[in-house]
Amino acid sequence: MGRRITNGDDKMIYDLRFTIYDFKPKTENRNSKIQERGFTLIGLAIIIVIIGIVLMAVSRVHSTIAKIDKEEELLFRGDEIKDAIDSYFKNGNTYPRNFDELLKDQRGINPRRHLRKLYKDPITNGEWDVIKDKAERITGVRSKSDKEPLKKANFHEEYKLFEGKTKYSEWEFVSQPKIGGK
Predict the structure, then answer these.
(1) In sequence order, what E strands does the chain have?
(2) How far apart are CA 180 and CA 94, in angstroms?
(3) Which pTM does this prediction carry?
(4) 15-74, pLDDT tens digit by residue?
(5) What's the rounded Cα separation, in Å, for the pair 94 and 108?
(6) How far is it, in rounded angstroms, from Cα 166 to Cα 39?
(7) Exposed (0-12), middle (13-18) or buried (19+): which is 1, by Cβ within 10 Å?
């Protein structure tokens, strides 16, 4: 604030002149801290937006991978059931009346299992749409789903008919047993 000055009489006199700096409010520090906080909030908001965008992309990829897995499982399960129907037919020249006959075929001396277990439709996680012949015997299965498949080409030779189909319900796993090893 003031400075001590001495005159020739050794009396102390206080210089009461004040400099501008003595009364300058410390607004620079406060403003800079507020500005730093503002930049921090903006930076945090940008980081949150970026994380949100990344999470959306990851969820899309995860959803696509899950759909591909379900399609592969549909092909596997449908093929297993179709092969079991083929095996049942080869064992007695007739198709099964229900799935229980595929699980335990009582037509011979020793019961035979053409299907290890009854699989659910992996797309609907429910029952299959059963394809029957005129005698009301099971000849195949298909999904009940009307969703559009991801896979529309490059099927195994046995399922070339699936190419270009627009619904899972159009993927029909129908028994076509080869009689006599043909």
Answers:
(1) 3-6, 12-15, 129-132, 138-142, 172-174
(2) 15
(3) 0.70
(4) 555 554 555 555 555 666 666 666 778 888 999 999 999 999 999 999 999 999 999 999
(5) 13
(6) 51
(7) exposed
- DSSP-derived secondary structure letter, 119: P
DSSP letter at 105 equals B
* Residue whose C-alpha is closest to residue 173's, from 163, 160, 159, 153: 159
Beta-carbon count within 10 A of 89 CB: 19
According to DSSP, residue 55 is labeled: H
Question: Which tokens in the block code for residue 147?
Answer: 């969703």
CB 146 within 8 A of CB 97: no
Gap between the terminal Cα atoms of the chain:
112
The CA distance from 103 to 131, in Å, is 18
Q: How far is CA 177 from the centre of its chain?
A: 36
For the chain, domain boundaries: 75-181
In the numeric block, the tokens 């490059």 are attached to 154
